[in-house]
Amino acid sequence: MIRPIHEGEALALAPLFAPFMPWLPQGALYAMMQYERRRFFVAEQGGEAVAIAAYGPSGYSRHAWALGPAATLPTHRGKGVGSELIQTRLDAIQAAVIASGLPAALVHVSSRRPHSWVRLGFRVIDEVDGSSLLCRRLTVGAEGER
Ligand SMILES: CC(C)(COP(=O)(O)OP(=O)(O)OC[C@H]1O[C@@H](n2cnc3c(N)ncnc32)[C@H](O)[C@@H]1OP(=O)(O)O)[C@@H](O)C(=O)NCCC(=O)NCCS
Q: pLDDT tens, 118-139?
């Protein structure tokens, strides 16, 4: 089951997943969950949190959204949870874009695995030190776009 995290869950979830995102400064994951405008989904299996993934508006733009960070517990990787969380976030962004009345928005992500995103229609904008910035247009058509 995938659901948005509840208020107050940062205390349990941040220490569980922060070790798998060692590039984040200490306390940053907790701060993102608790205080910032980042929105988190959690994937649960058997009542246990196995993955988290975040998204949010990019700055104060109504047209640009950012994905990340995300992590799956090592014991649960390679089973599609991360991909499901990508689709859940794209769907949530699309719903927000529809609600705002805009025809489209841009979604960007910074990743060391650009191929995963290129497969999903993202385009590499640039790359520095093994980390790529990718972007994808999310269009709100008659049937929407996935
Ligand atoms: C990247 C990660 C979240 C993928 O989780 P997962 O549950 O194993 O994902 P899936 O089983 O759906 O993986 C299927 C594919 O999608 C990719 N993928 C899924 N979610 C991803 C994400 N958020 N970012 C980049 N790639 C992702 C996987 O790398 C894999 O690619 P492959 O088929 O080329 O090997 C997981 O390996 C992880 O937690 N890594 C450590 C933290 C990290 O690197 N986070 C991403 C940057 S914030």
A: 999 999 999 999 999 999 999 9
